[in-house]
Design goal:
373 residues, alpha/beta, Four Helix Bundle (Hemerythrin (Met), subunit A), two-stranded antiparallel sheet, binds guanosine-5'-triphosphate, GTP-binding, hydrolase, GTP binding, SRP/SRP_N
């Protein structure tokens, strides 16, 4: 999972590491300067501490303070510089500045874009990483990997954690029946995700009905019926080519009459650009108002999935997304971008074809996966 993206992020860490090594080597000559300054220095008085200065000022009238001879003042300055340089070198620290980061950050942005992360999201990540690293003091020879990794983790976590909410908790606490409508294009795993969630809610002790609202594609009703049968939940269905709003309305009536907890409504796959089908979706939402609308798309579609999510969200405001086929996704771009672009959270990740291959989305878990050995 996300192997290509993992390799790219690790490349960025290495690049910053080499920058730091270069800078460490460049600092070495300063040590020689310090040594030669030390040879030059004649013993001089150390400048008084601020406390001594205050005391001396209170003890002596201002006019009695003697001016420091010019030669002695020079030595003091020299001494001050030598002290500072010594501190710099002996503590062997330096500060990362914008110049150090310019090239690696450019490479990072390219790597993120190549991983199908949307432009605005890549920019947000790069700007956050930059903000965290510029001005960071580093001890030469210390482990730089951690600060770079932490900066990347924070930046990715921030863009992925938009309005996170817990679907299980929502369903548990909402007035029943809870109605959830699933939308998206053909073949991305909508029906399979409905089946997975049916099992999840059933395993939590809730009663579930599925509504065969995809009356458009031949075989879609049978496909859902097979899943419902395997999982042991009721299906409400009409004839193919029937009105999806009518099927879903019936499913809600059935749920109310039989105290069913959750109604999961399938809908026909449709392109976000198909105005008639999008109008049909709005009708479904008017006739049987959903508590939640979940957009389903496949992670492997990358930027396309993110653009579709944004356009569906404009037509019927989605509550969140399920990204399927993450088990086959090496780039991770859709997963990283979708919540930031839509402002709606990822709810679950589909991670295989089995009913239990559904993972509740946790941005921290995702970010940790990206940096796992
Ligand atoms: N590897 C993998 N395959 C998945 C996942 N989710 C769904 N699939 C497979 O993707 C294919 C399409 O899934 P469906 O659930 O039929 O897709 P759909 O969106 O309902 O398609 P339509 O009925 O055409 O609208 C099936 O072969 C599923 O088994 C997943 O998380 N990982």
């Amino acid at each position: 999972m996300f192997n290509k993206l993992k390799a790219k992020l690790s490349g960025f860490k290495d690049k910053i590491g080499s920058k730091i090594d270069e800078k460490a080597v460049a600092i070495e000559p300063v040590e020689e300067v310090v040594e030669s300054l030390e040879e030059l220095e004649s013993p001089v008085e150390v400048s008084p501490s601020p406390e001594e200065e205050v005391n001396s000022k209170t003890e002596l009238p201002v006019e009695e303070t003697k001016p420091v001879p010019e030669e002695e003042n020079k030595n003091n300055k020299k001494f001050g510089f030598a002290q500072k340089a010594k501190a710099l070198v002996f503590e062997r620290e330096f500060i990362l500045d914008e110049d150090d980061l310019e090239e690696p950050l450019w490479d990072l942005e390219m790597a993120l874009l190549e991983s199908d992360i949307a432009l605005s999201v890549s920019e947000a990540i790069v700007s956050s990483v930059k903000g965290q690293l510029v001005g960071t003091r580093r001890r030469i020879g210390s482990n730089t990997g951690n600060i770079v990794e932490d900066a990347l983790k924070n930046a990715i976590y921030d863009v992925m954690s938009a309005n996170v909410f817990d679907l299980d908790e929502f369903v548990k606490n909402a007035e029943k029946p809870v109605h959830i409508v699933f939308i998206g294009i053909n073949g991305t795993g909508k029906t399979t995700s409905i089946a997975k969630l049916s099992k999840r809610f059933k395993d939590q002790g809730m009663s579930v009905v599925v509504a065969a609202g995809d009356t458009f594609r031949a075989g879609a009703i049978d496909q859902l019926a097979i899943h419902a049968n395997k999982i042991g939940v009721k299906i409400i269905k009409h004839q193919e080519q029937g009105d999806p709003a009518a099927v879903i309305y019936d499913a809600m009536q059935h749920a109310k009459a039989h105290d069913v907890d959750v109604v999961l409504s399938d809908t026909a796959g449709r392109m976000h650009t198909n105005i008639n089908l999008m109008e049909q979706l709005k009708k479904v939402c008017r006739v049987a108002p959903p508590d939640l609308i979940i957009f389903v798309d496949e992670a492997v579609a990358g930027n396309d999935a993110v653009e579709r999510a944004a356009q569906f969200n404009d037509a019927v405001p989605i509550s969140g997304s399920i990204l399927t086929k993450t088990d086959a996704d090496s780039k991770g771009g859709a997963a990283i971008s979708i919540a930031y672009i839509t402002g709606k959270p990822i709810l679950f990740l589909g991670m295989g074809q089995g009913y239990d291959d559904l993972r509740k989305f946790d941005p921290q878990w995702f970010v940790d996966q990206l940096f796992a050995e």
